[in-house]
Amino acid sequence: MKKLIKYIWLAILAMGIVCCDPGDFDSDITTNPNATTVPITSNLLTNALRGIPGTITATQGQLYVQYLANSQYTSADTYQTINFSYNGWYSGMLQDLETVIDLNTDEETKQIASANGSNANQIAVAKILQSFIYLHMTDRWGDIPYSEALRNDEGILAPAFDTQQAVYNGIFSTLADAVNMMDGGAGVSGDILFGGDMDMWKKFANTARLVAALRLSNVDPSKGNSEFNAAISAGVIAADNSENISYTHLEEANNENPWFSRFRTRRDYTVANTLVDYMQSTANGGTMDVAMDPRLPVFADATESSNFTEYVGMTYGVSEAVAGSIDNSDVSFLGAAMRAQGAPTYIFTSAQVLFSMAEAVKLGWISGSAEQYYNDAIQASLNQYGVGSEYATFITNSEVAYDDARALEQIGNQKWVALFLNGYEAWAEWRRTGYPNLTPAIAAQNESGQIPVREGYPTTEPNLNADNYAAVVARQGEDDLDTRIWWDTN
Fold first, then answer.
1. pLDDT score at 30
2. pTM of structure
3. Secondary structure in 3-state letters for the chain
4. CATH number for the domain including 417?
5. Signal peptide span per the entry (predicted)?
6. Do 299 and 352 reside in the same domain of the chain?
């Protein structure tokens, strides 16, 4: 365009033509009369959805719960980093979704926006996704900016921190309202998750509500019970994997699985010995009396040194010097199936819901058989990874076979396995239940030497939001890895 303008000006000068105002001429030439001045809501939704895989598969969460271990650079395994940033969510996904809400609410723009789905449906989807992101964030940092967040247009540039309890209450209310506001009109465009299927968006919201409700099992069981049952009544995903919520990746670089991208540049992610040993042994260290967990060959590659016949986990939480002394051929890396370019990123699964319902029975929140829900959850997880035919044998294993006396431990352990690579979700469940029984990194670098129970705020907060930062630290506790968040009373 710049070259075109240059050539036009040269032609005008050559003809001796004088323009009264070159500035006006430049504006007329460079302004496209057919271009919209209003953001396209379908594009904003797509952009927000594309951020989900990175959120789910973020590497630090995998390390906290000892799914993975680094084979070379182990500082993340040993809890060196204290402060983690959430700024990208506020300026990216959350802001994109807030713009969708604004454009579908404003009388001057809502008609144009409705070309991408009914106004109510677009607002509902945006609110559901925002709630999902806020849930992820509050489970990592505790108190976060919430009620005053995303209000720059109102002059709020330094938002206050809401208590985690207030954030949870807001999430529950927003998810319920979002489901209720869906109007039966046109489904949303730009929806690369469900293709505009509003029934699935309802189930996404209700499943997120169920997961959030169980977080309150220790701190506010009455509220948790109420929200859990409301979610089930409103309709969660099916129990047979047919409605597992996953992000579909493609066999091309722009939309590939994050693990494929990571392995392209860095072959460093091995499966931790904690997980591998559990999947091959009973809790007391003896060999499984039937067979190893049939999911292990999916989760991990067999070692090169064993001629690809054995699975050996990388010793978790060691120093870089120790890690460097362990040959890569002697440990199992993340399984090829899990890091394939087109492998899906699972967000919510039937197994996760069924394990939650098994625990809810034990808590007295719902009726039914905890054993049946537990067994169904294991079957669903095995089916999810293509090894369902091994269920009849696997379920008879002494470590796995349901024992009512230790049901909560078994549910927690098997849920941990089923949530593989959904690291931050598994970390939240470990903090809430204490299962599985994890041992801290051998070379832990944080002050307590224990597994972190929260993450520190981004360094921009004390620098740019000093008063509110000081207030939240005074209320919640030290801004480090060892301060428990509100629902973590275990």
1. 55
2. 0.91
3. CHHHHHHHHHHHHHCCCCCCCHHHHHHHHHCCCCCCCCCCHHHHHHHHHCCHHHHHHCHHHHHHCCCEEECCCCCCCCCCCCECCCHHHHHCHHHHHHHHHHHHHCCCCHHHHHHHCCHHHHHHHHHHHHHHHHHHHHHHHCCEECCCCCCHHHCCCCCCEECHHHHHHHHHHHHHHHHHHCCCCCCCCCCCCCCCCHHHHHHHHHHHHHHHHHCCCCCCHHHHHHHHHHHHHHCCCCCCCCCCEEECCCCCHHHCCHHHHHHHHCCCEEEEHHHHHHHHECCCCCECCCCCCCCHHHHECCCCCCCCCCCCCECCCCCHHHHHCCCHHHCCEECCCCCCCCCCEEEECHHHHHHHHHHHHHHCCCCCCHHHHHHHHHHHHHHHCCCHHHHHHHCCCCCCCCCHHHHHHHHHHHHHHHCCCCHHHHHHHHHHHCCCCCCCCCCCCCCCCCCCCCCECCCHHHHHCHHHHHHHHHHHCCCCCCCCCCCCCC
4. 1.25.40.390
5. 1-20
6. yes
Contacts of range 305-310, beta carbons closer than 8 Å, 24 or more positions apart: 305/329, 305/330
pLDDT digits (tens, 9 = 90+) for 93-121: 999 999 999 999 999 999 999 999 999 99
Residue 256 lies in a domain: no
> Do 120 and 197 belong together in one domain?
yes
- Cα(453)–Cα(431) distance, rounded to whole angstroms? 7
C-alpha 176/C-alpha 47 separation (Å) is 24
Q: Print the domain residue range for 417.
A: 66-73+268-437
User: How far, in Å, are 148, 271, 464 from residue 161 at the CA level?
Assistant: 8, 37, 14
- In angstroms, what CA-CA distances link 48 with 44, 53, 173, 289? 6, 11, 22, 47
- Nearest Cα neighbor of 174 from 142, 131, 132 is 131
Same domain flag for 234 and 282: no
How far apart CA 217 and CA 431 sit, in angstroms, is 12
Which residues of the chain are under the pLDDT cut of 50?
1-27, 282-287
The pLDDT assigned to 437 comes to 96
Q: Which residues contact 315 (CB under 8 A, 6 or more apart)?
A: 69, 273, 322, 323, 326, 442
What φ, ψ does residue 373 adopt, rounded to 5°? Answer: -60, -40
Compute and round to an integer the Cα radius of gyration of the chain: 25
Q: What is the pLDDT of residues 305-318, one digit of tens each?
A: 999 999 999 999 99
Number of domains in the chain: 2
User: Would you say residue 326 lies in a domain?
Assistant: yes
